[in-house]
Amino acid sequence: MITLSQVSKSHGERRALDDVTLAIESGCFLAIVGQSGAGKTTLLKAINRLADIDAGQIMVDGEDVSAQPLAALRRRIGYVFQGIGLFPHMSVAENIWLVPRLQGMARAGRAARVAELLALVSLPADFAERYPAQLSGGQAQRVGFARALAAGPSIMLMDEPFGALDPVTRAELGTAYRALHDRLGLTSLLVTHDMSEALLLADRVVVMDEGQVLADMPPRALIRHRGDPRIDAMLDAARGAAAALEALARDA
Ligand SMILES: Nc1ncnc2c1ncn2[C@@H]1O[C@H](COP(=O)(O)OP(=O)(O)OP(=O)(O)O)[C@@H](O)[C@H]1O
């Protein structure tokens, strides 16, 4: 459904994407992990053309994204990011209805569709009339997911969507989104710093460093991976925490 062929992008001297080739099949939940500056955000933004690329080709549904009208591309691709950017002066319903409104959807169906989208992200229907300042961080993030899903996209790009949340809400939302991904048959790309989150939620994990793909494999293969010190360092952090907790439970 999404393919990147030899994609490169530089900011001055700095290569944010360095000859990246990836194929992401329909229905896949792909996590992209890597340290700060690895190129993860640039990769997502290249797919929905928030960033232009210098070389290579990106195809979505068999069409080169650079040849697709932006509006049509963005309708097919939902985008969720950390801190979500809800408009503070708009109600939850108005925030969720933003994209359908821009697409000229009739207001008549708004209430029912907003209620449906709120239900999808497990928020009560009466949240529609609230304002962003009246939401917790987790609730605001759920509204962000509802907004991204409002135009009925088949692809979701998510950039650290759980990054600003407490660990319990983060785990809850991650699991809830995974269920939603499966139920709606979405293709999802999740950028995260958290290797455990990537391993536990995704079907496939791409590890990036300095604009390059270091590894691309299912979680069960990646967790056993040895030999590349850059990947080892990221895996060791996840393994170390799990082992320490297990030891603590054993000694208790
Ligand atoms: N608009 C820009 N102008 C200049 N340099 C940029 C720009 N956007 C990204 N970069 C640089 O490109 C590289 C990759 O950035 P990118 O945001 O894709 O990394 P990332 O892996 O998402 O990092 P983080 O985890 O910190 O969000 C970094 O070195 C960054 O400084």
UniProtKB/TrEMBL annotation:
It holds the Pfam family ABC_tran. One of its GO terms (molecular function) is ATP binding. Residues 2-235 form the ABC transporter domain. It comes from the Bacteria. Keywords: ATP-binding, Nucleotide-binding, Transport. Signal peptide: none annotated. PANTHER family: OSMOPROTECTANT IMPORT ATP-BINDING PROTEIN OSMV (PTHR43117). Belongs to the ABC transporter superfamily. This is Osmoprotectant transport system ATP-binding protein. It comes from Sphingobium lignivorans.
